[in-house]
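Q: I have two molecules that I believe assemble together. Could you output structure tokens for the complex as a whole instead of separate predictions?
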Amino acid sequence: MSKDDKILKDFTSKEYEYGWSVDFEVDQAPNGLNEDIIRLISKKKDEPKWLLDWRLEAFEIFNKMEKPNWANLKIPEIDLQSISYYSAPKKKKELKSMDEVDPELIKTFEKLGISLQEQKRLSGVAVDAVIDSVSIGTTFKDKLSELGIIFCSFSEAVKEHPELVRKYLGTVIPSKDNYFASLNSAVFSDGSFCYIPKGVRCPMELSTYFRINASNTGQFERTLIIADDSSYVSYLEGCTAPMRDENQLHAAVVEIYAGNNAEVKYSTVQNWYPGDKNGKGGIYNFVTKRGICAGDNSKISWTQVETGSAITWKYPSCILKGNNSIGEFYSVAVTNNYQQADTGTKMIHIGKNTKSKIISKGISAGHSQNSYRGQVKVMNRASNSRNFSQCDSLLLGNKCGAHTFPYIDIDNKSSMVEHEATTSKIGEDQIFYCLQRGMDEENAIALIVNGYAKDVLKQLPMEFSVEAQKLLSLTLEGSVG
Amino acid sequence: MNITEDLKRFIDNENDSNSQKRKSDVIKSIEKSYSLQKEEYKYTPLLKKIEKKFNLLPENKEIVSQKSYSEIKKNIDSEFYILCVDGFYKPELSNIPPNISIKNYSELSDKEINLFEKIYQKYDDSKSDFFSSINSITHNDCLTISLDNNFISKDHISIINIIENYEVSNFRKMIFCDKSSEVSFFEQFIDLCQGESFSSSVTEIYLSENSKFNFYSAQDFKENYHYNSINTFQRRDSTSNFYTLSFSGSIVRNNLNICLNDKNCYANMYGFYAINEKSLVDNHTSVDHVDENSLSNEHYKGIMGGRSNGVFNGKIFVRKKAQKTNAFQANNNIILSDKAKVNTKPQLEIWADDVKCSHGCTVGQMDEDAIFYLMSRGISRKESISLLLSAFSSEIIDKIEDDKMKSAFTSLIKNQLEKFNDE
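A: Yes, here they are, computed for all two components at once.
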């Protein structure tokens, strides 16, 4: 038992690695949330009138909403008026290539280990980096545009492809969807936009990197991914934030649209600053992510590794509207210290022969609370639909909690739904087995935790898988001896 | 809320100061229990359905009649039985075993009051469930059953609740099992009311050290609405077993709350529901592991035909202190008809690390291959289905240790399953 305690102690005392901030000139809106701020954001971004109207309508809806309190989270009062809703590194001119990007910024990404230059040369991943909710630079744009793929910042998409944005914006997550989605719809400042034309298989992983840098700002980015018929794209998202004593709000929206035979794979490694070991500071992460398999035989797959944030409130969901469409959700959520996570998914089966699979692995340590909340809903016409859900929890220590709230609503007689869940700790016999094979305890635990999360980790693209495994092992590494 | 005002009337009419205090406690939290409905009755619109139909706050008076209910008594298969009509205990119509004290709360001696005062409304869900709150305030007398040390009954005791004269009736009882006692009850509700009715029943059970308690219930409510809340509080080394059968009812809501408050407790909950037509059966169970080394085991199975709706919500709580807990929960459903629905929510909340907890839940349909296999052996389709469905139910039946109850439940299920066919 004492060894366990020691592991826990070291585990909890581990510091956040990405906790630095960079000073570069920013253009920041005054604090507060009102109509003028929304007009200001819209003006700064040079937006067309329809988008401003859309924002104002969302704001009107938002004003009538109340903060949701159903999650198994203790959410402190968030003063929306004390946040700045727009913060951008000062842009002097349009940037044509990466070389023109502020060297401070490049340094930022090098520190993150996500140097745009490096990425460009070595891994062949196209990156759209978003700092404080403004897209900084998108790599590999030319190469992608040869295939007809549009991958750019959201504001650029509004300017260059307004018809696409207008057609799909808010179709999957309407502005009245929920409190945080409405807020985002009203004040979102930037994000990524991606369009894969018919029959195109995107040859590289597309990636967005989010970072909150300035203090007192919220980040409200919006991502829209459209996969037209018979296309394929794999999309990665990563995030970090500096260490700050105060809490920062992050309320993003991700919408995915998949046409006939299209496939979208969305992977996230979320590593926002989780707060210090006494639970001070950290990001409040309220994210709405949803994809619609609108066409037949389409597929959307969500994979997430959640290690950061003081509060995580996130339910990447799939609406399986097309016949034979497939939705998948793979998640590893790690909480430590005073972190709280309430995360899961919704699988809404509408089309015939739709399939969904949910694998959720929760790991809680310290004083943290980790909840899985999911819904599997099979509508009356979704005949022969199939769902399998598995949600396991691992508890490290006796001060944390693991909770499971699965909702299973079946309205069809030919569908098959299975749900299973277990909660346990790392077995002493498992550790003993590893030890007697000559491993030390530290490696044994890392091995067991990685094995426990393997079903999810193996879904990640290689670069992310390595990072995610590193993140998991790092939290446990150095915890013994 | 105007209901608060209406409920205060019941306190003013109360002479006993203890009762007054109990009832005012409930009123204090009535808004909370009302607001919790949104989640706890998400799929079960019980209040919405009945609030316009009935006066939920009746002031029922005991009706004295010469009826002997011989028809009903004839069907009772145990020697001893307790008979209640409209929520009033009828000692003259009951046959109670010796060495067991069965009385109305108002007739208890001071010593007995001291005992039951420790239980009365202490372990129920009157502060979290609206219907329980209403029952706590509007029920008439409370039936108390108390078992002495080492009391062991071989045969089960039947509890027959008859709903006859009022469209809304409230039943309430407390059962106290002293150390090392062992007892079984078989509870049934019989509705003789003309037309629709609503009945609610709240039971509090206190199990002392080393006691063993079995509770069987069979529900067949036809077109009526029913709310049932059973609350058990267990002390060290005690065991409880619950077997619940639900066959019909416009809306039937069962709350089964078990608090394993001490070390080495066992709790087993088994349920089987086979519903048809427009019935809605909602089983909400909650097991709270407070202390170490306890085991809870829960298995509910259901068959839904017609336009019926089966709802299951199982909660398992494992508190910080409850190390070495084992908790299992399973819910299996078969949907037979296109219009039938299942809503299930198996929920785990765990704060202790050295535990083994698992839950599983499935929703599916008849296996066509299995039907084909049986038909190829010359068995008709209807018979094949009924054979497979009774095999589905046998997992629950097999858990019953008592042979007499086992055969009683088997025949009840057999009768019910004959009504099912694939649609």
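A: One point stands out. Chain B has one domain: 2-365.
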